[in-house]
Amino acid sequence: MPHPRRILILLSIVVQGCVPASASSPTPTATPPIPTATLTPSPIPPAPETPSPTQAPIPPQPISRVFIVTFDGLRPDAIEAAEMENVKALMQSGAYTMNAQTVVPSATLPAHASLVTGTCPAKHIARWNEYVPQNGYALGVDIFDLTRAVGLRTVLVTGKEKLRQITEPGSTDFFGFVDNTDEEKDETTLENMALEQIRQGFGLMMAHFPDGDIAGHEFDWMSKQQLSAFHKKDASFGSFLKAMKNSGYYDGTLFIITADHGGHNSNHGTRLPEDMTIPWIVSGPQIVPGELQTPVYIYDTAPTVAFALGLPLQPEWDGAPVYEAFGLPVDPLRNGECPGVTP
Ligand SMILES: [Zn+2]
Predict the structure, then answer these.
(1) Is 47 inside a domain boundary?
(2) Which of 38, 63, 207, 329 has the largest CB neighbor count within 10 A?
(3) Distance from residue 234's CA to the centre of ligand 1 (Å)
(4) What is the Å distance from ligand 1's center to 91 Cα?
(5) How far is the CA of 84 from the centre of ligand 1 (A)?
(6) Ligand 1 being an ion, which residues bring their Cβ within 5 A of it?
(7) Is 138 left (phi over 0), alpha (psi -120 to 50) or beta?
(8) CA 192 to centroid of ligand 1, rounded, Å
């Protein structure tokens, strides 16, 4: 049972938005003040247990599944420049930061491995960035392992074969790779593959769009060709959202939208802010909308998924759940940076 004062604090927040608990009054006729931009995290328990006799809080909607979408090479400033309206809509309904950080090297395979394993490259060791089957798979208990262990279906659909190496084949119920670098018709296949997986249902699905990265290497980061590629993939993402709604899976889904790295000129992989800085967006049940104030790292993604699905956090994880997105207190002293990242 939460302490009665905690309940009072919670209720005051539910009823009056951002009024400090000490100043709150349960008078039903009180005019709610205009919320301010700064919201101090409060010690709210995740699930209110005791409804008030006068103003029952709405119980949190359960999170039944998680859908992660990675736009390869997406710099935060490309979202606006490429008019990615579906991503922007999720940003507005969710919690987000345009200043999340990826790992060193800021490259596709190491970054996606950190995303799913919750660890820095020093632990998962997948620092290579080509498909090298003899190297095996990223080490550690990853979020596909944990999700599958509780009987939920796991799906990974990707445009780069090397992402097979971020998790073992036995960790994904479905792994689909479509090479859309050579023929136009393959683009449809990647989308159709993902749409079919959505229809089948899942506990955890990750879809990876390679197109913006490919265009960046050919035409430069933030070129009109790259922005066009991101714009098209945003439309594909929109078709996924529509399929989720049509299949009855939209409600109860936590969406996480992010990237593996940014880029500059025609490349990435360095410690430059243009390469390291990525968007990180979470939207869905229990999420408190707004811009995140605390630092977010790509390897916080797996712990956030675990927290959302009620799966055990792993002691070896370098990442931590992005509690702020759920309106929960965060450790102000946390230094989540991978060792050696800052020169
Ligand atoms: Zn990449």
Answers:
(1) no
(2) 207
(3) 17
(4) 21
(5) 18
(6) 72, 108, 213, 260
(7) beta
(8) 22
Total tally of structural domains belonging to the chain: 1
Rounded distance from Cα 46 to ligand 1 centre (Å): 35
For ligand 1, the distance from its centroid to the CA atom of residue 319, given in whole angstroms, is: 20
Mean pLDDT of each 10-residue bin along the chain, 343 residues long: 44 38 36 41 49 65 96 98 98 98 97 97 94 94 98 96 94 90 60 95 97 97 98 97 97 98 97 98 98 97 98 97 96 85 68
Give domain status of residue 153, yes or no. yes
SS (H, E, C) 298-309: HHHHHHHHHHHH
Single-letter code of the amino acid located at 65: R
Which CATH number goes with the domain that contains 306?
Answer: 3.40.720.10
Q: Give domain status of residue 44, yes or no.
A: no
134 lies in some domain: yes
Give the structural domain span for 173. 65-326
Q: pTM for the complete prediction?
A: 0.82
Are 330 and 41 a contacting pair, CB within 8 Å? yes
**CA–centroid distance for 143 within its chain:** 12
